[in-house]
Amino acid sequence: KPIIDVQNVSFTYDGASRPALSSVGLTVREGDFLGIIGPSGAGKSTLIYSMNGIIPHYCKGDFFGSVLLGGNDTFETSLTDLSRIAATVFQDIDAQMVASMVEDEILFGLENFGVSRAEIEPRMAEALESVGISDLRHRAISSLSGGQKQKVAVAAVLALKPRVLLLDEPTGALDPASSRQIFELLRELNESCGITVVVVEQKIGLLAEFTRHLAVLSDGAVRYCGETRSVLRNA
Ligand code: ADP
Ligand code: ADP
């Protein structure tokens, strides 16, 4: 049964002359590892915003169609409730980070979610551990490498125990080795923790190696979607 069901979605940003998404349909099964690829301006970020409810709740524009996230119609469900199902690592993680210390970045989300005092420490430790950055806990975020920052951003959302992890070009600013590490981490979270992963990525090699399904976007439409191997053969 799908955990994300995008049904015939069209979206035009206020002031834009053409839609960023046109009649997009896409389903993501629970436990899937889906890659999204396409040229700049294809609508990849907009599709992520439609999956997590930022569209229609936060971005202004004309929205048609419907999206079900964990069975909830995003139009009728608050962003707060939606954020308990899907967590997002945005493209601009520097803008996403709210704290200056690693520990505080993770603490922020936990407190925001109303996690009890007793549960905060174990969740913090588990999130850092699962991403392999326990040693960075007391570091300043500004002192970290790009790859380390990405891991902090992932740890901060993992602490919230989402069923779905949405990531918008997490390797965009990373060298090949760090990019691979991020995907190995995503695979681990997907396979061991059963987290559904949806990742916008431009590096075909990583998509081919790590994702199960792949959607190719251009001009706001899904051109191909299916098993990664067959999409890459036909695209
Ligand atoms: P991407 O790498 O996904 O193409 P962009 O550089 O297109 O990212 O977008 C970066 C930010 O600028 C995003 O928050 C996006 O919503 C916003 N943005 C992109 N295009 C426009 C536009 N034509 N008008 C206003 N904001 C835009
Ligand atoms: P991608 O992530 O594939 O680069 P986006 O989803 O960022 O594509 O953008 C899709 C289209 O929507 C582009 O034409 C972009 O310029 C436009 N767009 C994105 N954000 C905004 C915005 N905030 N306001 C107006 N247009 C936007």
From TrEMBL:
Domain ABC transporter intervals: 4-235
MF terms (GO), sorted A to Z: ATP binding
Keywords: ATP-binding, Nucleotide-binding, Transport
Record bears the keyword Nucleotide-binding: yes
Family: Belongs to the ABC transporter superfamily.
Name this polypeptide is given: ABC transporter ATP-binding protein
Organism of this sequence: Raoultibacter massiliensis
Lineage: Bacteria, Bacillati, Actinomycetota, Coriobacteriia, Eggerthellales
